[in-house]
C-alpha cells in the first residue's frame, strides 16, 4: 500500500542528503582505518604483517558505499533534472526494475551481508575456530542471503511501476531485516560473553597487577564490540520497522545503512589499534603487539591472556592453562 504521508519524491531527495552526510563520516573513518591496517604507529607494516582479509573487506565496503552514492546521484538527477519526455521525471522513482534502483538494492544487501559475515568471523575467531559456536549464526546468515537473492530477482524482473512494499517483495524484505537484527544481537552477545566472564572472574577473585590493568582493557574491548554492534543493529532494526510498515521512510533509513555498516566495521579496527598503541607506549614502546596477563585466581590456577595483535587488528584471545606440572594453550586467532 503506497505511503501517502511521505511521497516517494521527497523520500528519495531526503535519502540522498542523508546518504551524503553518512558517506562523509564514513570517509573520515576510512582514513584512520587505513592507518591502522597499514601502519603500526611507528612505521609502515611489512607485507607479511598485513591483514589481507581485513583490507579486502574494508575495500569492498568502501566500493559499495561509493557506488551507492554515485548511483544515488544518478537516481536524483534522472528524477528531478531529466524531463519526462526524455525518460526522466519523478515517476521513475516508482520503477524499481530500473538498473539504477536494482544496483542500489544490491549494494545495500551486499554491504549488510558482508557486515554480518565479518561479525560471525570475529565470533568464530574468539571461540577458537569452533563452527559449533557460530553454527546458528551461519544458518541465519545463509537464510538472509537466500532472502536477498529473491529480493534482487523480483526487483529486477518487475516490469510495472511498483515500490518495495509490493506483495512479492515485502515478505522477503521483512524476513531479511528480521534475520539481520536477530543475528547481530545473538552473535554480539556470543562475542561479549567470554570476555565478560573472564572480567567477572578476575573481579571475583580480586586480581591485582602492578604492571597493567587487564580487567579495564577487557572492559574496553567489550565496550568497543557493544557500541559498534549497537550502532549497526539499531540501523538494521530501523530498516526492519520501516520495511514492515510500508513507509517510504525506508528509503531514508536504508540509504544510511550502507555507510553505517562501514563505519561500524571501521570503528572496531580503529579503536582496537588505538588501544594497542596506547598500551605499547605506556609499557615498553614495542610495536610487535602486547600481551595482557589475566590471572583468574582460584583452583585450578589459570593464566588467561588477551592478545591484541598489530598484524590482525581485531579480537584475539590467547588462553593458557597451567595445570599442576604441565600447561596447555588454546589460541584464538
Explain how this protein is built:
This protein has one domain (8-285): Rhopdopsin 7-helix transmembrane proteins, CATH 1.20.1070. It is 65% helix and 9% strand. It is built from seven helices and four strands; from the N terminus they run H-H-H-H-H-H-H-E-E-E-E. It has helices spanning 8-38, 52-80, 99-126, 131-157, 169-204, 214-245, 249-282, and strands at residues 290-296, 302-308, 316-323, 326-332. The protein has a four-stranded antiparallel sheet with strand order 1-2-3-4. A hairpin with a 2-residue loop joins strand 3 and strand 4. Helix 1 (8-38) packs antiparallel against helix 2 (52-80), helix 2 runs antiparallel to helix 3 and helix 3 packs parallel to helix 5 (169-204). It comes from Crucibulum laeve. This is G-protein coupled receptors family 1 profile domain-containing protein.
